[in-house]
Amino acid sequence: MTSSIRRDEIRIAFLDSFAMLSKVPIGLFVEEGTIIDRIRSSESAIESPRYCTLVREADGGAACENDEACRARRIMDSAREGLATCHAGVHNYMIPVRGDQAKRVALVFGEVLFAGQDQDVNHARARHREFLEHAPPDQSEHRDLLVHAYEDLRRVGRAEFQPLIEVAKVVAPSLSTLLDEDDTVKQSIEEVSHELQTRLQPILAMTQNLQRNLLTSSTTMVRESLRQIQSATQATATVVYSLGEYLSEYKFRMFGVGKLIQNAIDLYSAEAARRGIQIETNAGTRSAKQIRAYISRTHLQYAVNNLLHNAVKYSFSSTAETKRVVKVYCHRRTDCFEMYFENYGVGITQEEINNGLVFQERYKGDLTAGEYRTGAGKGLAFVKRVVEKHNGQITVSSRGMSDARDPIRQPHLTRFTVRIPLHQDERRPQ
Amino acid sequence: MSSKPTIAWIEDDSAIIESVMEPMREAGYKIVQLRSVSEVLARIEDLRDASLILLDIFLPDGDEEDYPDRYVGIHLLKDLRENHAIELPVIVFSVLDPLDWRDELQSNQGVVKFLRKPVLPTDLKDAVDEVLGLSRG
Fold it and tell me: ipTM of the predicted structure?
């Protein structure tokens, strides 16, 4: 992705700038699973095998269990920055940048010897040479490179090194942000791609089934198949709309809240009508039209679409005896506006609500089954993210409306309520 | 219509099974749907009666200790092989082509085919026929 490449370039530019100004090498150690990778700035790119694979005791045994990667791991384990010194007397300062289990990152810079420690340095240098003498023969090129690299190491005073630490502390959080954004974009694109594949599967299957059965199907059956294909296509369209959340920037402008709801109703009224569901709203009223707020219109529209589509999708269909209604209302409160989406149909358990499961990625409700169990469980996670970017809140309630013993068949009155400030403060949303 | 083997389809999305299984059902296959890890483990005997597993990779639930990441189907398969002596051939049918695990799944976990969603229902039926050594049609 272009944005990802741009972030890589920014990351290298950060490291390069530091390396040029400080005259010391800098890099990132990135650990994913059991693999640890070193990302150097282009200024300090010396490609070589892991030091510990080169240095050997006279009997061929491993001499180093304390190379840069090992030390970076320890810093990441402790989650505390600090000076790390290898057996060859080389000092690096390491700052943990990111510490989640899936991916850990440490910023590492230095590769220096401290002035005034000549005796220690000479001793370390002798050990370094001695170990490298026993490097595997096929690694002689790298061995020579490392011997020379040690000879060329910069010698600095501790007082000279301290300002570099202060600068690196400022750089580290920015690198962390870049890495986070990078991962979020990659993960989001992958998720949208998987979601689209999932949604396309029934459409592809239903069209082939219709084609295969066309000559033997009644008009009613053909109509029903086409209705199902239309519904599945609309569900897929919701995913495509959500791409905007990932790809476009949040831009906050004053906009009418009622209009957002009306747009969503226009989108899903046909699907609701086909299932005999009435959408009840105050979006067209004068009071609703007067609610205007600073919102990122594109993103909040997607969220409103998603919430309304869910309300329709998880509503039980009308029967001859009962008319089903989905309610969408918006109200102005003192400092915020409120929207709610209410339906009568598939419920959400109290446990799912209390534990926030309903807003987790890939979560599918315990009470969804059959035709109501669709999609990849991304929609509400996406909605929550959009609401939080507006510094708002989303809550949900769901209560059983009959004595039915089977909770899956028991109708629930479910309401999602969104509250968003009318104004966004000066700081950008999280 | 001749009687054909039973297929255990491990897939949480009913809409996918309902729409894709038509050619297989017409051909006489009996399809048993298992929607989650807990359902698979509760119905191990159904798996023993089956001739083939169709396996989705992204599945709900799964104990975090045994299923450390979101590729739940892969961990479930290893669990079935190692702890439940299920030795059926497997077609992985998922949105993901598990490149990192392909060799391991083929060599050690009895995966004979990988199909990536979306596929035509007839293509899935042909793949099932082929794996079970049955004539197409």
Answer: 0.87
